[in-house]
Specification:
The longest helix is centred in the middle third of the chain and has 13 residues, at 65-77. The mean pLDDT is 87. The strands form two sheets. A three-stranded mixed β-sheet has the order 4-3-5, with no helix packed on it. It contains six helices and five strands, in the order ααααββββαβα. It is α+β, with helices and mostly antiparallel strands. Strand 1 and strand 2 form a beta hairpin. It has two domains: 13-97, Winged helix-like DNA-binding domain superfamily/Winged helix DNA-binding domain (Arc Repressor Mutant, subunit A, Orthogonal Bundle); 99-157, 2-Layer Sandwich (Dna Ligase, domain 1), CATH 3.30.1490. The structure holds zinc ion. Zinc ion (ZN) binds at residues 108, 110-111, 113, 148, 150-151.
Length: 157
């Protein structure tokens, strides 16, 4: 009888990386913090802190607004979530899914619709421009203000 095939190691639980990160900050993975983490994992597309709060409360009723606001920088710090400032009074967030690091955003000026586009040329551009000045690029962003097709149609009618 053949020996059972060895199972490859299961992928490590991504929440462990978050727990390890907050432990480094001297914080515990409380039910509330982990609910905010889980809510961010569930949300697709761009969301606000309030939308994250609503989703987190579906998971754990005791999550407070303050917990969400204190947990967001931790999610950003450990690389789970990206902060997207579109120059409004509220910030948008996007949960990272391991896609390409260099992305640009098209932001509709009228309705705040945000479209993420892969921008591999940015990596090349950033490196080339920085090298010229003897600098090493750390991050870069490209944001294009635009008017989406729905808003164009609304304006035309
Ligand atoms: Zn629009």
């Amino acid at each position: 009888m053949a020996a059972p095939e060895r199972q490859p190691n299961p992928p490590s639980d991504p929440s462990e990386a978050f727990r390890a990160y907050i432990a480094q900050q001297g914080l515990r993975g409380t039910r509330q913090r982990m609910a905010v983490y889980e809510a961010a994992r569930q949300l697709t597309g761009h969301y606000t802190a309030d939308e994250l709060l609503r989703r987190a409360r579906d998971i754990e009723r005791s999550v407070s607004r303050a917990t969400v606001y204190r947990t967001l920088p931790l999610l950003v710090g450990c690389g789970s979530v990206r902060e997207i400032d579109v120059g409004r009074d509220h910030t948008y967030y996007l949960t990272e899914n391991g896609g390409p690091a260099f992305r640009a955003q098209l932001v509709c000026e009228r309705c705040d619709r945000i479209v993420e586009v892969d921008a591999p040329f940015m990596e090349w551009y950033g490196k080339a421009v920085a090298a010229k000045h003897g600098m090493r690029p750390v991050s870069q962003r490209l944001q294009v203000s635009a008017v989406c097709s729905d808003c164009q149609r609304r304006a035309a009618s």
